[in-house]
Write a structure and sequence with these properties.
The protein contains six helices and seven strands, in the order βαβαββαββαβαα. The protein has 193 residues and is an alpha/beta fold. Bound molecules: thymidine-5'-triphosphate (TTP). Thymidine-5'-triphosphate (TTP) binds next to helix 1, strand 3 and helix 5.
Length: 193
């Protein structure tokens, strides 16, 4: 059994895909970037802060996983849109070009901490303002970094992905499995046959 420091249903689903028994507990951390903080450093810090925040609250020595996802566009972070105007502006910026999706995953066990950064390149086709407006009304963009969900209707915007689909969705499973394996969490129990 591990703890997942997250309120995200996507992250729970993705962890289920690995078959890892877990309990998800939301944590509230300050996600404000530090002055001049590179996106890579920010996403790693936030993933670690989430795992640390939950580890500090729990008495059981269970492994605690935290994750964070940010878009990096010209070196600037795009997180979740504040409102419709912000979301529309994000989609307009992503239209017809390539951006990076960075997902960090952190594991805290006892006093030990480990971290992995997953990087993905995503290309969007040109988007019409009318389809961005229509996409906003689906409700999908509101709680997603960069105002889109690759696992949802924004799949029709993505002409190319170089990286990992689970990383773009918010929990890079290859890196997560590596962290768990290194911490001694059994991922595949082979029974007698
Ligand atoms: C780019 C992209 C992001 N996302 C989601 C993943 C994350 O849930 C969200 C980015 O916000 P985060 O701040 O990383 O996470 P969160 O607030 O949703 O959840 P937590 O409680 O763990 O902090 O965007 C998708 O679901 N699909 C996508 O294609």
């Amino acid at each position: 059994m591990i703890l997942l420091a997250s309120a995200s249903p996507r992250r729970r689903e993705l962890l289920n895909q690995l078959g890892v028994p877990h309990r998800a507990v939301p944590v509230d951390i300050d996600e404000t970037p530090l002055p001049g903080e590179p996106v890579e450093a920010l996403v790693c810090r936030l993933a670690l802060d989430k795992a640390r925040a939950l580890a500090a609250k729990t008495v059981a020595e269970l492994p605690v996983l935290g994750a964070d996802t940010l878009i990096s566009l010209d070196g600037r972070p795009l997180g979740k849109p504040a409102d419709r105007a912000d979301g529309m502006a994000m989609l307009a910026q992503l239209s017809g070009r390539e951006h990076e999706v960075l997902s960090a995953v952190a594991l805290v066990v006892g006093g030990r901490e480990a971290l992995r950064l997953n990087r993905n390149r995503v290309r969007f086709r040109e988007l019409e303002p009318a389809e961005c407006a229509a996409y906003w009304t689906t409700g999908e963009p509101a709680d997603k970094a960069g105002a889109y969900a690759i696992q949802g209707r924004a799949a029709m915007f993505v002409s190319r992905l170089e990286g990992s689909y689970t990383g773009v969705m918010g929990l890079p499973l290859f890196e997560t499995a590596e962290l768990l394996r290194e911490a001694g969490v059994a991922l595949l129990e082979l029974g007698d046959s």
